[in-house]
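Fill in residues.
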């Protein structure tokens, strides 16, 4: 059986650490510089240096609080760098946006890539609204050289600051939008995550701040299931990588039709209750939006477990939890590749759902969930009493639903998944 991609990265870095005595060099000198050619001795560099989320780091980097940054087109520096930033929650009600009637080439169900999500953001007026500028044009994008700049970055061990010099490193900008008064540089993601690599905002910010007289605004955008989340940041000290500060954050919801409580009740009454599956565990994946997002990623192509773990802000265990949850709902299925690796793909139901309009998708997701007695009965209780059920109430429903759970602790743990899933259904009527 082929080794998992995660394991290949770990093994290659173990070999590099051993050959170049990287840990001792970092302890002695504070940093260690490594070239793409050195990395290539063991594995392709592009697969070895891109870690968008802290969870994606190789085992040795996690164990010793290390990170890696590019400094030229073929050189990298390793140290105890503080490189990630936790995404702030956005609790405000989303602003509704719509695709103009005259546009036929963009559809609510057809936004399957970062490029299409960005095009849709422009077409709906989202960018004009967020930038507070009526005249906004798409300008710079793609890969380019960074030019030359230097910066300070915190050391997570010593709490001191390292000085890093960058000379024509490669950067990539997903989209640049210029208005009358500013240039917004976008880092766009189709996967929901807890954190991001600040370099994705900082390097383009430093590059274009040297070329513009207008302010440069770094913006982190995520799109999933019809919802945009935008976080705008400022670097209060442009020469300090860790001076990132949130300026504003907003949600935008693509709206093709509102969903009412009556719509949800109709789905609840129309579905037929199915038998609980014997070959997949009861869900243990608390964030339902990430179950949907996993299906969106699989809409692009089938993925192995390792692909999902590397691409997403997931541990290997979380990949199991969320893939099993989507299988439980009948949205994805497992298969075995020719090389023997386990992979996942959308079922026909999952494919139809992901490519439907926003309203149709949400109601079909409700149907997938409410076909299961536990979720159906819990939602009925929620609507009857006008508030979210207590965990003890959900446990009682679970015990009456022929679930094959072994312990009281397991019932309570699984109830912690049922409640936020039902919250997701109810919140559809509030957006």
């Amino acid at each position: 059986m082929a080794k998992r991609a995660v394991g290949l990265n770990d093994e290659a870095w173990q070999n590099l650490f051993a050959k170049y005595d990287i840990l001792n060099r970092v302890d002695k000198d504070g940093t260690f510089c490594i070239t793409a050619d050195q990395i290539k001795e063991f594995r392709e560099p592009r697969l070895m240096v891109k870690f968008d989320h802290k969870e994606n780091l190789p085992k040795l980097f996690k164990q010793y609080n290390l990170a890696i940054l590019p400094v030229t087109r073929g050189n990298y520096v390793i140290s105890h760098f503080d490189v990630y930033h936790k995404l702030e929650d956005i609790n405000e009600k989303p602003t509704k946006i719509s695709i103009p009637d005259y546009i036929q080439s963009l559809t609510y169900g057809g936004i399957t890539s970062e490029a299409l999500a960005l095009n849709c953001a422009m077409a709906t007026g989202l960018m004009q609204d967020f930038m507070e500028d009526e005249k906004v044009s798409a300008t710079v994008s793609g890969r380019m050289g960074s030019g030359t700049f230097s910066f300070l970055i915190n050391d997570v061990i010593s709490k001191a600051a390292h000085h890093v010099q960058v000379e024509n490193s490669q950067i990539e900008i997903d989209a640049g939008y210029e208005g009358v008064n500013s240039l917004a540089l976008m880092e766009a993601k189709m996967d929901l995550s807890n954190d991001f690599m600040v370099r994705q905002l900082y390097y383009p910010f430093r590059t274009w701040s040297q070329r513009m007289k207008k302010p440069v605004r770094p913006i982190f955008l995520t799109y999933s299931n019809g919802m945009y989340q935008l976080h705008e940041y400022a670097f209060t000290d442009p020469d300090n990588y860790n001076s990132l500060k949130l300026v504003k954050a907003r949600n935008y919801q693509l709206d093709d039709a509102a969903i009412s409580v009556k719509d949800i009740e109709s789905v609840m009454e129309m579905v037929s209750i199915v038998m609980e599956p014997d070959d997949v565990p009861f869900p243990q994946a608390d964030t339902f939006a990430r179950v949907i997002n996993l299906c969106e990623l699989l809409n692009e192509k089938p993925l192995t477990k390792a692909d999902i773990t590397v691409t997403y802000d997931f541990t290997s265990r979380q990949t199991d939890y969320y893939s099993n949850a989507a299988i439980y709902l009948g949205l994805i299925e497992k298969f075995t590749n020719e090389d023997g690796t386990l992979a996942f793909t959308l079922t026909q139901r999952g494919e139809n759902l992901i490519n439907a309009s926003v309203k149709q998708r949400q109601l079909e997701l409700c149907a997938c969930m409410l076909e299961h007695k536990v979720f159906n009965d819990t939602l009925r209780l929620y609507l009857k009493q006008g508030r979210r059920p207590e965990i003890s109430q959900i446990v009682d429903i679970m015990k009456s639903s022929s679930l094959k759970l072994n312990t009281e602790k397991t019932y309570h743990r699984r109830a912690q998944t049922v409640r936020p899933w039902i919250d997701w259904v109810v919140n559809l009527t509030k957006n």
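The CA atoms of residues 395 and 412 lie 6 Å apart.
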